[in-house]
């Protein structure tokens, strides 16, 4: 016996009544079988009912692709009930990736030409939802005609469809500019049409210089409408939480921001209005906060009066950033100040005490925004006070903020440190408090700083020894302490430092502490390496009989002969400089090539190492030029001469620049392996705010092989600080024309940014 097909209401009840997922699938499978059979039979009277059930099944997440062609049949039907379900099905089941959506173009064109408003509305809604670029080109003329319809129902939908068309095909801006210009004056429009028209004008102004120039003439009208909304209320039925039509207010403010940008006359026209909006908007509700936020953005992006920027009520300490204000209002104010700090740093500085208070807010998003703003406010005049506040916050901040706070303090100390001793003390406190959350280069930076401050060697080694004796769990702190003890352990034992409290340290205590680090289960392999090196170096500095406690030495005559030279204090390495970067790139290329061709057994490498050490310790003649080999690798490591020709010079290339963030590419091709290309990606930030969570990803054509090395960090410091670098190794054996596709993701000025772009202008020297 054939079970009859269910009605839509019965199907919904039966699906909801299913007690298990299996029962639900059984019901849906049976009904889908009935729907398929009905579609095959071609029943025109019940086709729209079957499709309505299929759309419900689709909404539950089950496949419904077999109903796409039925949508086209219903749209072509003359009956309104069929068209209504057909257009709904087209919006749910069709998209630009399927060619079937192009088949409804003629049906939509015919329906737009009819005088039935309900049918025209269905066609416009479908076009604005699934309209592809081809459909927009074909139907732009019909939509243009409907923009001047007297009826508000069709006109409002036509405006929204025009917005979709411009976003999809910006070249259509010239078609919709005349009807927008002739469709004014704005005060004669209803609220819905006014909102849609302003949205359409905003899209036109963003994409067409001619539209921007034309609509600057209507700034007085926009100002008058917004003033009416703020002071008297435009329409009571559109009020939300006591704020009159906040959606319309926000859209007008966005349009004013575009029209007033880099235009003195328009900015002056809206100055008084912006002050009124900022003063009279109720910030106790979310709707008011949205309007206030757009107002602040408009004030900062236009050429507003300086007094308006500084004295805006939404940015004053007694305003939304005050502790008694709602959380969302303070978040809006902090975000606004963060955007403003780059353009007017001194004006934001006056709110610094209130911003610091917001650091201890229980709301995570508020404290994070306050942290970003606090770090942006640090300068040479307030670095001591701000660093003290940030260090106090670091001790009690949530775990997810520790990394950002620690990195920010280290960057601020590196840029604005008043003295080297203060700089060392600041880094030590950060390492003691949150050593596991600091950046990867913190250890190298601190060792570089201590090594360059000869007058602070004794002070630093005593401070680090005391910190290490108290806690060996913070691995970066342990690594720096072990390095410093290995280099300056003799100063620790002398006890001649006048800048610290008297500290009597015995050789046995120092060795016991380093052995404790070696045996600790918390020590990382790198940490144990630092401790081993320190013990090795102490074997040349200890005066007593404790050398037997340093069993990590090579018991060979050669080693004893060269031990003093090998384990002497590390020389100071200069940082920065173009020559250093070029030398680094050249060494990376040479080391990469040597690693590719390395085939000699380890014993030969050890003999080469001993020979090189022996030749470098005496007055022997310099070694002969070396061929690419494992010995050549060691030669490069020791900066010995090499006969390999210098890599060919390839010009650098800037591929990205936005809001102070620049991305430059430098190239090196090892002459021994022409198919290998080394690209160093350098990210530099010249803005006033740090770029955080920076990630660079790359892709190359299938004929090439790409290997991405780990970047030097994920934070690009502001104001031209230490850049972030990343090495790309590309193997192009066929010497095919090279193209790069890069994706950048980062956080800057309170926003999450993602950029995807192609680099098609790489120099020919990179692949020929």
Which helices and strands occur, and which strands form pairs?
Blueprint: H1 8-16, H2 21-41, H3 47-59, H4 68-76, H5 80-93, H6 105-113, H7 117-130, H8 133-146, H9 152-168, H10 173-182, H11 191-207, H12 209-215, H13 219-231, E1 239-240, E2 243-244, H14 246-260, H15 264-280, H16 286-301, H17 306-311, H18 327-340, H19 345-349, H20 352-357, H21 364-377, H22 383-396, H23 399-416, H24 420-434, H25 442-452, H26 457-470, H27 475-494, H28 507-519, H29 525-538, H30 557-566, H31 578-597, H32 602-617, H33 630-637, E3 653-658, E4 661-668, E5 676-685, E6 692-699, E7 705-708, E8 724-731, E9 740-748, E10 751-759
Helix pairs in contact: 1-2, 2-3, 3-5, 4-5, 5-7, 6-7, 6-8, 7-9, 8-9, 9-11, 10-11, 11-12, 11-14, 13-14, 13-15, 14-16, 15-16, 16-18, 18-21, 22-23, 22-24, 23-24, 25-27, 26-27, 27-28, 27-29, 28-29, 31-33, 32-33
- Extended strand count: 10
* Beta-strand residue percentage: 5-15%
Question: What is the SS-derived class?
Answer: alpha+beta
Runs in which pLDDT lies below 50 for 5 or more consecutive residues are 316-324, 576-645
What is the topology, as strand order, of the major beta sheet? 3-4-5-8-7
Integer average pLDDT: 79
Share of helix, binned: 55-70%
DSSP helix count?
33
What value does the Rg take, in angstroms?
35 Å
Largest sheet: 5 strands, antiparallel
Which overall shape is indicated by the principal axes computed on the Cα atoms? globular
State the distance separating the first and last CA atoms: 75 Å
Oligomer: single chain
Main location: membrane
Keywords: Cytoplasmic vesicle, Golgi apparatus, Membrane, Protein transport, Transport
Subcellular location: Cytoplasmic vesicle membrane; Endomembrane system; Golgi apparatus
Family: Belongs to the adaptor complexes large subunit family.
């Amino acid at each position: 016996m054939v079970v009859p097909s269910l009605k839509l209401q019965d199907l919904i009840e039966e699906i909801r009544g299913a007690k298990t997922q299996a029962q639900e699938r059984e019901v849906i499978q049976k009904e889908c079988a009935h729907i398929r059979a009905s579609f095959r039979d071609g029943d025109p009277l019940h086709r729209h009912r079957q499709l309505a059930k299929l759309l419900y099944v689709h909404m539950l997440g089950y496949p419904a692709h077999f109903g796409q062609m039925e949508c086209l049949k219903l749209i072509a039907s003359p009956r309104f009930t069929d068209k209504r379900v057909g257009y709904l099905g087209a919006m749910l089941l069709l998209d630009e990736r399927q060619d079937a959506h192009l088949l409804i173009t003629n049906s939509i064109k015919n329906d737009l030409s009819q005088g039935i408003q309900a049918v025209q509305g269905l066609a416009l809604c479908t076009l604005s939802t699934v309209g592809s670029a081809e459909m927009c080109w074909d139907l732009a003329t019909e939509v243009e005609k409907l923009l001047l319809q007297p009826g508000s129902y069709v006109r409002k939908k036509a405006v929204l469809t025009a917005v979709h068309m411009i976003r999809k095909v910006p070249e259509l801006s010239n078609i919709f500019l005349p009807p927008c210009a002739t469709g004014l004056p704005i005060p004669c429009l209803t609220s819905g049409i006014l909102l849609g028209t302003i949205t359409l004008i905003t899209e036109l102004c963003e994409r067409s210089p001619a539209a921007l120039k034309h609509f600057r003439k209507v700034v007085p009208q926009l100002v008058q409408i917004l003033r009416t909304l703020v002071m008297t209320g435009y329409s009571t039925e559109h009020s939300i939480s006591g704020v009159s039509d906040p959606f319309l207010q926000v859209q007008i403010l966005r349009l004013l921001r575009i029209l007033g940008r880099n235009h003195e006359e328009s900015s002056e026209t809206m100055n008084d209005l912006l002050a009124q909006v900022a003063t009279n908007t109720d910030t106790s509700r979310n709707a008011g906060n949205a309007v206030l936020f757009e107002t602040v953005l408009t004030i900062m992006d236009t050429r507003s009066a300086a007094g308006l920027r500084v004295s805006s009520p939404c940015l004053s300490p007694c305003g939304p950033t005050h502790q008694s204000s709602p959380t969302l209002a303070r978040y809006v104010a902090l975000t606004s100040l963060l955007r403003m700090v780059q353009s007017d740093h001194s004006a934001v500085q006056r709110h610094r005490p209130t911003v610091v208070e917001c650091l201890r807010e229980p709301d995570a998003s508020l404290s994070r925004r306050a942290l970003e703003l606090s770090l942006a406010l640090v300068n040479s005049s307030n670095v001591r006070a701000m660093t003290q506040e940030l260090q106090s916050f670091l001790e009690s901040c949530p775990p997810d903020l520790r990394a950002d706070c620690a990195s920010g303090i280290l960057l601020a100390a590196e840029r604005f440190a008043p003295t080297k001793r203060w700089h060392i003390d600041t880094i030590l406190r950060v390492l003691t408090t949150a050593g596991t959350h600091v950046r990867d280069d913190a250890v190298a930076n601190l060792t570089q700083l201590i090594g360059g401050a000869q007058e602070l060697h004794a002070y630093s080694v005593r401070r680090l020894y005391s910190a290490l004796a108290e806690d060996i769990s913070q691995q970066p702190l342990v690594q720096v302490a072990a390095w410093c003890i290995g280099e300056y352990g003799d100063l620790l034992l002398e006890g001649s430092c006048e800048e610290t409290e008297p500290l009597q340290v015995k050789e046995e205590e120092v060795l016991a502490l380093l052995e404790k680090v070696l045996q600790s289960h918390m020590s990382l392999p790198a940490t144990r390496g630092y401790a081993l090196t320190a013990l090795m170096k102490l074997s040349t500095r200890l005066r007593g009989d404790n050398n037997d406690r340093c069993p990590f030495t090579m018991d060979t005559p050669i080693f004893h002969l060269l031990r003093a030279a090998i384990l002497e204090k590390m020389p100071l390495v200069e940082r920065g400089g173009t020559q250093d970067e070029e030398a680094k790139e050249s060494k990376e290329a040479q080391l990469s090539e040597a690693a590719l061709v390395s085939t000699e057994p380890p014993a030969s490498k050890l003999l080469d190492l001993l020979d090189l050490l022996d030749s470098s310790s005496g007055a022997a003649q310099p070694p002969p030029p070396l061929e690419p080999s494992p010995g050549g690798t060691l030669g490069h490591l020791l900066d010995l001469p090499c006969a390999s020709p210098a890599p060919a010079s390839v010009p650098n290339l800037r591929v990205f620049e936005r809001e102070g963030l620049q991305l430059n590419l430098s190239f090196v091709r090892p002459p021994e392996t022409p198919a290998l290309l080394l690209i160093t990606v350098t990210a530099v930030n010249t803005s006033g705010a740090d770029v955080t969570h920076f990630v660079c990803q790359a892709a190359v054509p299938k004929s090439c092989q790409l290997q991405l090395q780990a970047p030097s960090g994920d934070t690009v410091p502001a104001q031209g600080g230490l850049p972030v670098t990343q090495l790309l190794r590309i193997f192009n054996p066929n010497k095919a024309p090279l193209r790069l596709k890069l994706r950048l993701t980062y956080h800057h000025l309170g926003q999450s940014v993602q950029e995807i772009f192609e680099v098609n202008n790489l120099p020919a020297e990179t692949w020929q």
